[in-house]
Structure formats: C-alpha cells, structure tokens
Design brief:
Number of strands: 24
Bound molecules: adenosine-5'-triphosphate
CATH topology of the largest domain: BirA Bifunctional Protein, domain 2
Strand content: 25-35%
Distance between the termini: 15 Å
Structural class: alpha+beta
Strand order of the largest sheet: 4-10-11-17-14-13-12
Shape: globular
Number of domains: 3
CATH architecture of the largest domain: 2-Layer Sandwich
Radius of gyration: 25 Å
CATH superfamily of the largest domain: Bira Bifunctional Protein, Domain 2
Helix content: 25-40%
Mean pLDDT: 92
C-alpha cells in the first residue's frame, strides 16, 4: 500500500534532489560558485536532452510544415539594430530603504496586478514599494540585458559583438535561405534550439531564470489574414505538448498579455504559465509578431524578405507566430510536476514520476544477490536492453536502496533477476508508479518495455 504525501514539492527539495542525484550543480562550485549559473550532470543532461528531443519530435518530425535550423550565437551587429533589441532593456528599480535590493519594475507591477499578497501589501494607490522591506524605490533605470564581447584582437567599437539574447533573430535573418532551399511556402515554420544569454537583473529560483539558458523557438510564417487562426493553433498545440508529457492540466494556464505588457513587436501574446513552487510563472510565450521582424530586417539589410507566389505572382510579407519556450524552465517544470513523496509499507520514498519518454534512464537491471549466477544473467539482459534504450545495471547495496535510487531519478521500470531466474528464466518487472510486479520470461523484457515506452501514459497523480 502506498499513501501519497500531499503537495510535497518545494524548490528546496528539487534543488537538493538535483544535487544528490547529480542532475544539476552550481557552476564553478570549487571556486565558491558563479551566481545563478548551473551545470548539468549525467541525469540532468539526459533529462534536458529528452525534453528537447520531444520538442523536436512534436514540432518537426510529426509535422510537415516546420524545418530545423541551427544559427550561430554571434550575429552581425546590425541584427540587433534592426530587431529593436539593441535597446533590449529591463526597467531596474532599487530599494532606497533598508534592504537595497534590486527589482524589475515590470515584475513588481505584474505581481500587484495578479494580487500577489506581499507585493500588494507593500504598495498603495499605484505606488510601488520594496516587497522585501517596504522601502521607497528609485526611479526606474533602463538596464541593458545583452552581454557584450569583441571579435578579433582589437577591442574597439568596430569589433563589438553581442551574445544573442534570443534565438529568434537567427531564424529571421535566414528566412530567405530557408524559403529557397526547403521547398516550403507559408504557412510554414523554422524551429531552432540553442543557448541565449541575458544579463538578468533578478536571476533566481534555481534554473527558472539564469543568465545563460537554452531556448526552443519556432517562427511560423503565415499569410497575414491567417495570423489569428495560427496563433490559436499554436496555443493549443503547445498546451497539449506539456500535458501529453505528463504535466497536470490544472498546473498550467494560458494568460493573455494586457495592452501595457505587450512587447514593441507584438500585437498579441499569451504566456503558458506553470504552477511553480513560487506561483504561476511563465513557461513559454506565444506571440503574434505581425510583419515587424521581416520588415525591419528587409529595411536594414536591403534584401527583399517576402513571399512571392510563382503561380499568381502575389507577393506579401508573411506574418509571424512565435512559440518561444525555455528548455531549462521546461525541464524544471517537468521535474516539479513529477516530484512525489509517499509512504510505502511504513517507509517514505521520493519518486520522480516522469513521463517514460522524458525519464533519463528507462530501465534498471538488478540482480537480487551478487552471487549464484544472478549477476551474469542480469548483465546479459542489461547488455541486450541498452542497445534499445538507456538502461542501468546496479548490483551494489540492498535491493531497497537500489530501488530508492532509481525512483529518485525517475526510472519507470526495474527488472530483478533472482534465484527463480536461474531456475526457470523468468524475471520480475517492477513499475515505478503502481509498484506492480509482473513475472515474465527474460526474452520478453525488451519487447514489453518497447511496447510500454510507445504506449500512452497518464500522470498517476491524475487519479
Ligand atoms: P521574463 O518576462 O520572465 O523575463 P520574457 O517574456 O522576456 O521572460 P521571452 O523573451 O518570451 O521571455 O523568452 C521565451 C522563453 O525563454 C521564456 O518563456 C522562458 O521559458 C525562456 N527564458 C527567457 N528568459 C530566461 C532566463 N533568464 N532563464 C531561463 N529561461 C528563460
């Protein structure tokens, strides 16, 4: 029997689990760490890779109207002028009271608008105060978020380049290339995954907001009259993606931006928000960018960035729908949603109920005892399974301890080789979520796991 422990998850527990099991560490830890910068260890790499692979699968492999791109992080400086990102700034305010903390003014206004208690209590009649100590705040100052560096040996104005603050611009500047070589016509999209860099004023909440992060972005180019319809389409698609991969629907919501929140380029944006431990926060933005980007780049580059229909001769600048997600933020959301604690036969266990396709390791092969021919049989099975899926072999320590380890890294299945295996060639297959144990022939394990991996899966937390 297992008894769930209600709402067990906190950010501290996720951070501790990530460290304990080698998912994510503080960067440069031996030097005391670099603020808000993280390194992914073995299981973290596998998990985040799976998140990205599932994204590629959904947006490219399973569609025939999106193609892939991998553009460079360093781009021609004119890109940033054209995109309006040269002035990519956030309004910074500083507490003039006791604590001197820095805040993003737009975040404080958003918190008040959402009725978040602490921010609300500290502000009165539209005037913001420091949520920490109630002190007055400085006038907002625009803070440039782009990291600057220099190309080549001379560090002057002419050699100045930026680390991209979003992957999107690499897509826009390649619009013409892709249109020429992909044999696509609007509506079609270009998808890209890659690192972005923002010198954030208030990084924090573990990997939720960092200064170096990975984005998964699509720019979807459509005939202008179809923009509204495609915006709706992508909102639905992206919500479905998260829930199909196990996020509970009541932990997700779509929030349309109010008119004063919209970016300079956007006519409509909705955020997919997830119920993180600190409250509902942005997971992905889905914007209708109109023809802003292609028009700007056409003007600054003097290239024609438009679509010409060869049959009718019609020409137009496509409008753009942009679903823009964070790979690290997504990974965090999947972990938070999967985290569970429960009591099983009087003992507490921590379990990551990750969707099997996201789980870093799919199966652990465990000999019950380290003798009597069991390790040999288990190793043979492991060698066979790992050619088909990420698998682990573990012969160290008590079986309970080994299962606890696999539960914490989210391994959906465990296969135990025991004395009966030596006699009749059968093993037990344990399910992480239901704890159900089934006995099957050793030769059937691979096929059964492949079947389960391909089958639909529902978060056990849905009841
Ligand atoms: P915020 O208002 O939270 O700063 P944003 O609206 O500027 O975010 P976008 O520019 O829309 O964010 O970026 C798209 C996605 O990229 C976000 O939904 C998020 O998942 C991810 N992202 C953006 N900034 C960061 C960051 N500093 N750290 C981690 N992920 C980020």
């Amino acid at each position: 029997m297992s008894t769930p422990i209600k709402d067990a998850v906190t950010m501290e527990k996720i951070v501790a689990l990530c460290k304990r099991r080698g998912f994510i560490f503080q960067s440069s830890e031996i030097y005391g760490g670099l603020a808000s910068t993280y390194d992914y260890g073995h299981y973290g790499v596998l998990l985040k890779s799976n998140v990205k692979a599932e994204w590629w699968r959904a947006v490219v492999q399973e569609r025939d109207d999106v193609v892939a791109l991998d553009a460079a992080i360093l781009m021609h400086p004119r890109t940033w002028e054209a995109s309006g990102l040269e002035g990519f700034t956030d309004p910074l305010v500083q507490c003039l009271g006791k604590c001197k903390r820095r805040w993003r003014e737009d975040h404080l206004r958003e918190a008040v608008a959402k009725g978040e208690a602490q921010a609300e209590a500290r502000s009165a009649e539209g005037e913001l105060h420091c949520p920490e100590c109630g002190g007055d705040l400085s006038e907002p100052r625009n803070f440039n978020l782009m990291f600057e560096t220099h190309m080549g040996p001379v560090q002057d104005e002419g050699s100045r380049v930026f680390l991209r603050p979003e992957t999107a611009q690499g897509i826009f500047v390649n619009f013409k290339n892709v249109l020429q070589f992909s044999r696509k016509r609007p509506p079609f999209g270009i998808a890209q995954v890659g690192k972005s860099f923002r010198n954030e004023i208030t990084p924090g909440n573990f990997i939720f907001r960092t200064r170096e992060f990975e984005q998964m972005e699509i720019e979807f180019f459509v005939p202008p009259a179809e923009a509204g319809r495609w915006h709706e389409h992508w909102m639905e698609e992206r919500m479905r993606w998260y829930t199909e991969l196990g996020i509970r629907p009541d932990h997700l919501r779509l929030r349309a931006h109010g008119p004063d929140e919209l970016s300079h380029y956007s006519s409509a944006t909705s955020d997919i928000e997830y119920l993180f431990p600190m409250g509902f926060s942005e997971l992905e933005g889905i914007a209708n960018r109109g023809d802003f980007d292609l028009t700007q780049h056409a003007q600054y580059s003097r290239e024609k960035l438009e679509y010409v229909d060869s049959a009718s001769g019609d020409r137009y600048v496509p409008h753009v729908i942009e679903p823009s997600a964070g790979a690290d933020r997504g990974t965090l959301a999947f972990m938070v949603d999967a985290y569970d604690e429960e009591e099983v036969e009087g003992r507490e266990r921590v379990v990551l109920r990750l969707h099997p396709r996201l789980a870093p390791v799919k199966v652990a092969v465990l000999p019950l005892v380290n003798k009597d021919g069991q390790p040999e049989l288990a190793r043979d099975l492991y060698q066979d399974l790992r050619r088909r899926m990420p698998a682990e072999y573990d012969a160290g320590g008590s079986i309970g301890k080994r299962y606890r380890r696999q539960d914490e890294i989210g391994t959906p299945w465990g296969v135990t080789v025991d004395h009966q295996t030596v006699e009749d060639g059968t093993v037990t297959l344990r399910d992480r979520d239901s704890l159900e144990q089934t006995r099957l022939r050793i030769g059937e394990v691979g096929g059964e796991l492949a079947r389960r991996l391909g089958a639909e899966w529902r978060s056990p937390k849905l009841g």
